[in-house]
Amino acid sequence: MQYLLTPREYKMLKTGSMHRTLKEVEALQRLCTLAANYVPTVRGEPVGCILTNTDEESFCDDCPAADVCPCEAKSWNK
Known about the structure:
By secondary structure, the chain is mostly helical. The chain has one domain (1-78). It is 33% helix and 0% strand.
């Protein structure tokens, strides 16, 4: 499934200025998790979402959805 946003909608989504219901946040989290698990990164393979990947080496740094992901427990490589 693919969603196309206008530049204005993307900016609102990215800055968090869009009021989101719990249902919308859950849907956004599912989409971000799918992107992390299946969209290839610069390295050529998906990074995997920290919410579904039990590998302790998983980080949000290379995630294609890191900018819009609503997860509050993001893990960054230090």
